[in-house]
Specification:
This protein is α/β, with parallel strands linked by helices. It has six helices and twelve strands.
Length: 248
């Protein structure tokens, strides 16, 4: 009817639109919650590093590693990763690799892989402990402190190619063989020789195929423990040609 006020009818919202609106609201709430949680984890001091657990040290003390990691204390746990830990412990030459793992709410577990001593170098009245890369790890008070051979630093100065060849050879040896060595010498990179504590010797040659040579040497030494009847025990193990080794 003209001039009358028509009633406005409110039609129900279609179910599909209602579900979409609810989904959008739920998604927005989830985003806010996730953002808040991330902010809590990344920036709040409530989840900060309050303790450091150090694993894997032998050459270093736990206290030395903890002191190097002091700057991470109080930092949000989620912000401390491998890169920062690696940078902090880099002055510790004994560390070869390191990894970090966060254990909420406030603990950082740091696993250290140390360099392995392979020789003691007599140099200027000192006994320097070195690894297979020739890195000096510290000093020893006596040769009995480490079950590794001794290198004459005057004959083979640190860093020279001959020295690197010898330490590379020593690094390839199994621990039980390395522990039986008294000295390691070389006139050139192709003439590495090893002497055992019982006087037997090893003609090694160059540093090539050192893993194969190490396996062959270990087998020869094991066989020498039970020589055939009437055969003199081997005193020299020549693995310079590892596919055709010689004992005499």
């Amino acid at each position: 009817m003209a001039g009358s006020t028509a009633d406005v009818l409110a039609f129900p919202e279609p179910p599909r639109r209602r579900r979409r609106r609810r989904a959008l609201i739920a998604a927005a709430v989830a985003v806010v919650l996730v953002a808040g949680l991330m902010a809590l984890v990344l920036f709040t001091p409530l989840i900060a590093v309050r303790s450091v657990v150090v694993q894997g040290t032998h050459l270093l003390s736990v206290q030395q590693v903890e002191a190097a990691l002091a700057p991470v204390m109080g930092r949000p746990l989620a912000q401390v990763g491998d890169d920062q830990v690696r940078s902090l412990v880099s002055p510790l030459v004994q560390v070869k690799a390191v990894s970090a793992r966060a254990v909420p709410p406030d603990t950082l577990v740091v696993t250290v892989t140390e360099r392995v001593p392979v020789a003691l170098v007599k140099s200027e009245g000192k006994l320097l402990v070195v690894d297979g890369d020739g890195v000096v790890l510290g000093e020893a008070s006596e040769t009995a402190q480490y079950p590794v051979p001794v290198i004459d630093g005057a004959a083979m100065p640190l860093g020279q190619e001959v020295f690197k060849a010898v330490t590379a050879v020593l690094a390839a040896l199994p621990a039980d063989v390395l522990g039986q060595l008294a000295t390691a010498t070389a006139q050139s990179v192709d003439s590495v020789e090893l002497r055992l504590t019982d006087g037997r010797s090893v003609v090694w040659g160059n540093a090539q195929e050192r893993e194969l040579k190490a396996r062959v040497l270990a087998a020869l030494m094991k066989a020498a423990e039970n020589p055939q009847k009437g055969q003199a025990p081997a005193r020299v193990f020549d693995v310079s040609a590892p596919r055709h080794p010689v004992t005499r």
